[in-house]
Please model this.
Amino acid sequence: MEDLINIERESLKESSIHSLDGRVKLIITFIIIIFAVATQSITTLILMEIYLIILIFLSNVSPSYAIKRLILILPFGGFIALFQPFIRPGDVIWAGPFGIDITLHGIIFGALLLGKVTVSVTAVILLSSTTSMQELVGSARRIGVPSDFAMLLNLTVRYLFFFYDELERIRNAQKTRCFDIWNKNVPYQWRLRKVGETIAMMFLRAYEQGERVYLSMLSRGYTPESRMYTAASKIGRREVLFVAANIMVIVVLHITQTLLPVMK
Model:
């Protein structure tokens, strides 16, 4: 939860990228991810990663914060890439005991997979660090995301911090009763029971809060045909230049990897 608070804190900073329209940043992020997934050149992925790092630097986002988030998320994809040299068929460059082999094709495929994951995660970090959650939801709705799905996202973002406060109240109440989940002197079974009680309590409070919010929405005239209000905003010259610059970088990288096979 502290990470979510840090994400919101970074997204409230001021820079030329922070002030861009959320729709533009959202669409460019999708384009970069699609390009990264489609490319088969490790060099191109490295150049794209360098470009994203430059954008992070220009957006006034803390480098240590971006690196920390990248390190936290990267193992999920990196773990899969790590096993590719052992399970991918190809030219064997090292034969180990118990039939464990390392193949050249597996190493290349693993490096390519790791590069794609790194570029995609960095693009998402740049987007989430320069755009608030509410703006992301509003931008998604304005580019055509179904209204029901957008409303669910909106409610999730709106009540995420509320339920964090609820969880903190439960934990403070447990502390006043001298319960510490990390205390090794407390029996393991008792700690599990308290964790289960906390999860059940959070579920009940979420259910009750959901009922209250829904009844409140009905009392204000909510129907399935109701639409959320979204502040209007125009795409200006800066947004057009940002899109053109990113498209140009992607086109140049694509042409370069096509014309120079050695880069692969």
In short: The longest strand covers residues 92-95. Strands lie at 92-95, 101-103. The mean pLDDT is 81. The chain is about 70% helix and 5% strand.
